[in-house]
TrEMBL record:
It holds the Pfam family HNH_3. Residues 78-109 form the HNH nuclease domain. SUPFAM superfamilies: DNA-binding domain (SSF54171), His-Me finger endonucleases (SSF54060). Transmembrane segments: none annotated. Coiled coil: none annotated. It comes from Candidatus Desulfosporosinus infrequens. This is HNH endonuclease family protein. InterPro entries: DNA-bd_dom_sf, His-Me_finger_sf, HNH_nuc.
């Protein structure tokens, strides 16, 4: 690995050069440094329009040209039929405690609220007709209603509890 890095207790910060000359960093567990060193000649920060975030990637030569390799997939040894969820939404935090292999559907449950939502919370929207907050979850691209509530806080709580129950069912 050609990147500079520094030890920070039981973590390692790997410095990622960008095309514009700026430098970012990704954080990994110390025990995963060898994986990062063997996994790519040089790690870079790549912007993803789809998630509006940066990822640590390395380009690997294959017969057809270059193929990007993502650090978080290497660290978790993620199978092709799953995706890696960054639990805290920081896609450059590649410590094992922040990563989990999940289905696409489960990963979508852990997204941040869209900026266009009128409540500021995922799964909660204002209904003008009833003048109440509607709570819902999206599961397998279907909206599942959880009720309507006078108070925003109550609707948010219902969504969070239902989401936590869904996640615990997946994990257990």
């Amino acid at each position: 690995m050609k990147n500079r890095f520094e030890f920070r207790g039981d973590k390692v910060a790997i410095f990622l050069d960008r095309e514009d000359g700026s430098v970012m960093e990704t954080l990994i567990d110390r025990e995963d440094l060898e994986i990062a060193q063997k996994g790519g000649a040089k790690w870079h920060a790549l912007w993803s329009e789809g998630t509006s975030s940066f990822y640590a990637i390395s380009n690997v030569s294959i017969s057809e040209g270059l193929k990007p390799k993502r650090l978080h997939r290497l660290i978790t040894n993620c199978p092709d039929d799953l995706v890696v969820d960054h639990v805290d939404h920081d896609t450059l935090n590649n410590t094992k405690g922040n990563l989990r292999n999940v289905t696409h559907s489960v990963n979508m449950q852990n997204r941040k609220a869209e900026c266009k939502t009128n409540s500021g919370f995922r799964g909660v929207s204002w209904r003008k007709s009833s003048k109440k907050w509607r709570a819902y979850l999206m599961i397998n691209r279907k909206q599942i209603g959880l009720g309507v509530y006078k108070e925003l806080e109550q609707a948010v709580k219902v969504v969070q509890e239902a989401g936590a129950k869904l996640m615990s069912n997946y994990i257990n």
